[in-house]
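Entry 12.
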Amino acid sequence: MRPPIFITGVPRSGTSMTAGILARCGAFCGETFGPNQFNRKGMFENMEIREKIVKPYMMLNGADPKGQYPLPVLDSLLSLTNLRERIEGIMVAQGYKDGPWFYKCAKLCLIWPIFQYAFPDATYIVVRREDKDIIHSCLRTAFMNGYKTPAGWQGWIDVHKERFAQMKTAGMRCVEVWPTKFVQGDFSEIRALVKEFGLEWNDKAVEGFVSPELWNGGKTDGQSHNC
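Predicted 3D structure (tokens):
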């Protein structure tokens, strides 16, 4: 299989939007979670990988499987054997044959050493958003319940940003994108990545997928384009 594309970031930053754009341009992602009230365009996160590998591993390390509280401690992460074989096997079983493929997981940055070990050749798309906008979205989203105050969510965001820095220091290939630009009509960052991965940019599909009206979480119920 080709080296994977991993999409990660602080939850509520636009990881689902970013993954959806890659999927619209032909990248394989397997069987993923569909739309819900908080991600109206779909989550684009592989169901089997999340439920059978990532969440159990988070719990094995004494962390919240949702990646909120408590967070895993890097220095005491347990080993995870055959991670590459298991993930690639799932993708093949779900229909992968060739070409670019991705796995989107906000929690990946929290346990990055095990992915670096299993996939040293991966590219990591690190999705970014302004802290205040992430906090606003968390406070309006029902399943984001690990913290109750802006200060609590800020500390959580800071841990993620620290992990991003660690990933870069460790030599992992990390490329940042800012989906706020996408909803403003600037696709230059993601278009360049799509072409680099050997995919074909699809203007019509992408513009039909990105919905600026969903970006700020809706007026009352937290409906969103991002996760």
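Annotation: Residues 150-169 form the longest helix (20 residues). The first strand starts at residue 5 and ends at 9.
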